[in-house]
């Protein structure tokens, strides 16, 4: 599994590590780890709605912070369970830019096995770093 | 055992990490706990409470309550009072769920009257109070109306037929923090929250039907003053929820803003990014204080419209008006806030910015700001236990002055959610609880497993520690019979 939940940080919250060869894969996996806290079976989400997303930040770490918060925002504002379809991340002089599409559908309690609401991405132990094997993220979600 | 060697025992219930424990500590850190609770405390509590002690402007001590556990920024159960002139305000000292809090409501029904209809009652509460991930509320508002609501809190509910004047009087700050200015909240925060008014949420948020058994009344005089024990085996309703997506977005917005200005503009260095802060007397600090008050008011209004719906359900079920059923509030307490209050420091009364993160204000008898009916008793304090193990009503004590009149807020977790989910099965837990006389409805068996009783500290030990430390006094233990959770 490209992400793994941890029980050794912040007992009241949910922590996970994600690893990937590319930044796009890391963002996709971290998004899935975040959404799976709320919806237990991501494969049960029908991809009937598409949301375009464009975010810019000064570095990869804050870009992932914004990206995960975007997913949490759509869950509250539109009741949408979204997972990344296509993502492109590019670096320029002004920072790092993410463009992509998210796909999913509105929460349907009859079909989706829902679990615990995610309120926010916290800064506790939060880290995104490049290693010799690729990218690694540690995220603690407030639930 | 995680207890640092530097931890000193001050009294049976008070423990201290001296300023020498960590570089940058400005005051010592104090933890209220019995010896057993301190030995079981998360390592994160010692790390985080000592981090809080490094924040600019902190007064007297950084505190942690007996239910303290590992959170982010402050420990959950953390308390810090800042000098409003030289100190900071920190979203990590308040939490993402701003004004997450508890409300306790009386009925004049007995357990004998309610038990035959319990399943129907809990099912109806579950159907009528939206719960679970991303739920939308039953009060339909436009974004502009919502901006008005968050400036008024419970007053908006009174104007719109969701509250009584008595409800407002029985709510901390009468259900509205003054100075809330919606121009300081983002469109995103409004968009995330305007359709969530009247929702419970998930996680440890719940609405519980409880019984006051005569043998569980510890202080008959205070119990009577709070309206408990008017009938034998009296049924009461307790619920726990907060400011929902609106408050979460306000906290996220300002956490990001503070991270960007804290070092660059104000030269503040912190030991943990989750303690991001700004000088209280700065444009950013004041904007957050005002936006936070909007989220506080949203939470008061959220609990108020949920109370309205509880009244409708009971009225419908028992064919009597809410007044006839005695559906009166005992009190509404806030957990995650920062407030300007006057406290004594070195013999002088002084205005302080008191951060309470997962802790409860607990004013003693005679304190300004309490309803007149509680002037002699002290403030009612509502402490919710796990769904399996019961809850407590307590009262604030005069001896709580040292900790800025603050006490615990719940049991406090001992097991991570991840571990609890691996250890317990929600459907099995639901059946076992029903066999023990607690009927639970939930949107999520996974979420239910996370809230299993053994994942929490022993509530009896936690409240006993608050009483022995002089923070709050036990009035009655409340036994659950029905529960809805997200």
TrEMBL record, chain A:
Coiled-coil region: none
InterPro entries recorded: Archease (IPR002804), Archease_dom (IPR023572), Archease_dom_sf (IPR036820)
Domain Archease, first and last residues per copy: 11-143
Originating species: Citrifermentans bremense
Top-level taxon in the UniProt lineage: Bacteria
UniProt cross-references to Pfam families, sorted A to Z: Archease (PF01951)
Keyword Metal-binding: yes
Keywords annotated in UniProt: Calcium, Metal-binding, tRNA processing
GO molecular function: metal ion binding
Family listed: Belongs to the archease family.
Name this polypeptide is given: Archease
A single BP term in Gene Ontology: tRNA processing
From TrEMBL, chain B:
Gene that this sequence comes from: rtcB
Top-rank taxon, per record: Bacteria
Single GO MF descriptor: metal ion binding
Gene Ontology BP terms: RNA processing; RNA repair
Protein name, entry field: tRNA-splicing ligase RtcB
Keyword annotations: GTP-binding, Ligase, Manganese, Metal-binding, Nucleotide-binding, RNA repair
Cited Pfam families: RtcB
Binding positions for Mn(2+) 2 per the UniProt entry: 240, 335
């Amino acid at each position: 599994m490209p992400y793994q939940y941890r029980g050794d940080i912040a007992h009241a919250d949910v922590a996970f590590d994600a690893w990937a060869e590319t930044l796009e894969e890391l963002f996709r996996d971290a998004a899935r780890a975040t959404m799976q806290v709320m919806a237990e079976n991501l494969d049960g989400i029908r991809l009937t709605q598409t949301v375009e997303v464009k975010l810019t930040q000064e570095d990869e770490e804050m870009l992932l912070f914004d990206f995960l918060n975007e997913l949490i925002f759509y869950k509250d504002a539109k009741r949408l369970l979204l997972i990344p379809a296509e993502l492109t991340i590019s670096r320029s002089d002004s920072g790092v830019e993410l463009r992509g599409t998210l796909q999913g559908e509105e929460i349907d309690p009859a079909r989706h096995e829902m679990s615990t609401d995610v309120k926010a991405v916290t800064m506790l132990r939060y880290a995104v770093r490049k290693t010799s094997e690729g990218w690694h993220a540690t995220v603690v979600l407030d639930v | 055992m995680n207890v640092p060697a530097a931890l000193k025992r001050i009294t049976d219930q008070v423990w201290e990490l001296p300023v020498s424990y960590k570089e940058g500590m400005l005051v010592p850190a104090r933890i209220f706990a019995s010896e057993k609770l301190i030995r079981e405390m998360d390592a994160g509590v010692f790390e985080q409470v000592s981090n809080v002690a490094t924040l600019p402007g902190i007064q007297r001590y950084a505190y942690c309550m007996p239910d303290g556990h590992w959170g982010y920024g402050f420990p959950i159960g953390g308390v810090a009072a800042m000098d409003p002139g030289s100190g900071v305000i920190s979203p990590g000292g308040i939490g993402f769920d701003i004004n997450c809090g508890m409300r306790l409501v009386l009925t004049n029904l007995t357990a004998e009257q309610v038990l035959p209809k319990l399943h129907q009652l809990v099912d109806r509460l579950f159907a009528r109070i939206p719960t679970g991930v991303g739920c939308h509320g039953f009060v339909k508002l436009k974004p502009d109306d919502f901006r008005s609501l968050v400036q008024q809190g419970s007053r908006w509910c009174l104007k719109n037929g969701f509250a009584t004047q008595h409800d407002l009087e029985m709510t901390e700050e009468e259900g509205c923090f003054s100075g809330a200015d919606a121009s300081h909240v983002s469109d995103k925060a409004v968009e995330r929250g305007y359709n969530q008014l009247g929702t419970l949420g998930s996680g440890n948020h719940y609405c519980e039907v409880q019984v006051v058994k005569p043998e569980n009344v510890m202080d008959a005089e205070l119990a009577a003053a709070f309206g408990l024990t008017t009938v034998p085996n009296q049924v009461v309703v307790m619920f726990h929820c907060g400011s929902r997506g609106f408050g979460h977005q306000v906290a996220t917005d300002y956490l990001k803003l503070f991270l960007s200005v804290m070092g660059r503009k104000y030269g503040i260095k912190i030991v943990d990014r989750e303690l991001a802060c700004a000088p209280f007397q700065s444009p950013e600090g004041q904007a957050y204080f005002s936006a936070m008050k909007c989220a506080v008011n949203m939470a008061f209004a959220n609990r108020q419209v949920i109370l309205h719906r509880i009244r409708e359900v009971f009225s419908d079920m028992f064919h009597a008006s809410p007044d006839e059923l005695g559906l009166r509030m005992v009190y509404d307490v806030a957990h995650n806030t920062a407030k300007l209050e006057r406290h004594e420091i070195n013999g002088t009364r002084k205005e302080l910015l008191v951060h309470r993160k997962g802790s409860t204000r607990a004013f003693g008898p005679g304190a300004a700001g309490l309803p007149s009916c509680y002037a002699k008793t002290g403030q009612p304090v509502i402490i919710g236990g796990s769904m399996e193990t019961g809850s407590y009503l307590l009262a604030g004590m005069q001896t709580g002055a040292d900790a800025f009149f603050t006490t615990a807020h719940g049991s406090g977790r001992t097991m991570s959610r991840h571990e609890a989910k691996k250890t317990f099965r929600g459907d099995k837990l639901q059946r076992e609880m029903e066999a023990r006389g607690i009927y639970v409805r939930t949107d999520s068996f996974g979420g239910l497993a996370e809230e299993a009783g053994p994942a929490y500290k022993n509530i009896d030990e936690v409240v006993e520690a608050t009483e022995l430390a002089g923070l709050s006094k036990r009035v009655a233990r409340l036994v659950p019979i029905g529960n809805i959770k997200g």
